[in-house]
Amino acid sequence: MTERTYKMKKIALLFIIFVSIFTLTNQSLDAGENKDSKPLPVVNFGTLPVLQALPLFVAVEKDFFKEQGLSVNLVRFNSAMEKDVALSAGQISGYFGDMMTPMVLNANKTPAKMIATIFNTPKTQRMFAIIASPKHTNKSISEISREGIAVSSNTILDYLMTKLLKSKSNQTESIKQIEIKSIPIRLQMLLSGQVPAAMLPEPLVTLAEQKGCKVLIDDAGANASATVLVFNERFLTDYPDVVKKFLAAVEKASQYTNRHRDEVRSIMNRECRVPDPLQKTFPIPEFRKLTTPDYNQVMDVYQWLRGKKIIKTEMTFKQMVGDGYLP
Questions:
Q1: Does 203 sit behind a cis peptide bond, omega within 30 degrees of 0 on the bond before it?
Q2: CATH 3.40.190.10 spans which residues of the chain?
């Protein structure tokens, strides 16, 4: 072996040793980083097929969650009760809904906090209304209240109905409630005249109007029907940055919805179950910036629940609302 060949083999051997040490060092560093950092979870988020949830569906359709590096699975429910059970069972990390349900969950030892208001009915729109059947359009609000309004008791619609009657019509006498939990059945009984009036959400209010019903009172500008985004407290503690990114994606989807109304109509029709006769004409709701749930609104709902003895536990605003997550 010549001296030149020997030197070349020595250099090659040193190079191999250097590369091996460099590779092992990097693998060790990577292993340390993986050990210390939490992998991002899949966010299983419950929602309902309603208009106020539209930005959530838009965020999925337009990959706004993916842009934030998140994997979000929207879990569709047909009722608030199904959604609440899923959160209590740990099947979802959070959900979209009214202000009432997270309060009740908290009182029943399922820690959950409202972190953002996604929709609040403005003066130029309505989202809920008390509507008279075609056979009772000539009746006054006082007469209708005495004869009966179909609603599901101890729900957000029950709260809204009572609040609207008292604030917009000075109705203070007792209200006869007709218990009909299913909204589709409530609509059918209203249209057929089996109940004098009903408390309904949009777009069913508009559909009922087209079929001869009459809106008596609605929630436009009442500042009483906010819908919120909720997460369980453990998820908020473990993954605060994930929650912030989630809200950033929803905020982007809200603004996208406002600017591209024609484009998101097909998403609204499909996901929010807009009835066929309204799919081309029903107005796209306008979404404001995400905000922390309003103190007065939260406490008013809470006091109503306390008055109805649905909640017997003393709770503070900070126990019900989480702050510091908004984009």
A1: yes
A2: 42-120+226-320, 128-218
> Per CATH, which fold does 42-120+226-320 belong to?
D-Maltodextrin-Binding Protein; domain 2 (3.40.190)
Written as six digits, the tokens of 250 are 């929803």
Integer CA distances (angstroms), 97 to 51, 55, 185, in order: 11, 13, 21
DSSP code for 194: S
**Which backbone phi and psi does 151 adopt, to 5 degrees?**
-165, 170
Nearest Cα neighbor of 246 from 99, 63, 72, 54 is 72
- CB within 8 A of 31, min separation 6: which ones? none
- For 165-176, the DSSP string reads HHHHS---S---
pTM above 0.70, yes or no: yes
pLDDT in tens, 240-261: 999 999 999 999 999 999 999 9
Sequence-separated (6 or more) residues with CB below 8 Å from residue 266: none
Topology adopted by domain 128-218: D-Maltodextrin-Binding Protein; domain 2 (3.40.190)
Residue 94 has pLDDT above 60, yes or no: yes
Residues 6+ apart with CB under 8 A from 114: 99, 102, 228, 229, 230, 293, 298, 320, 321, 322
pLDDT digits (tens, 9 = 90+) for 157-185: 999 999 999 886 666 667 899 999 999 99
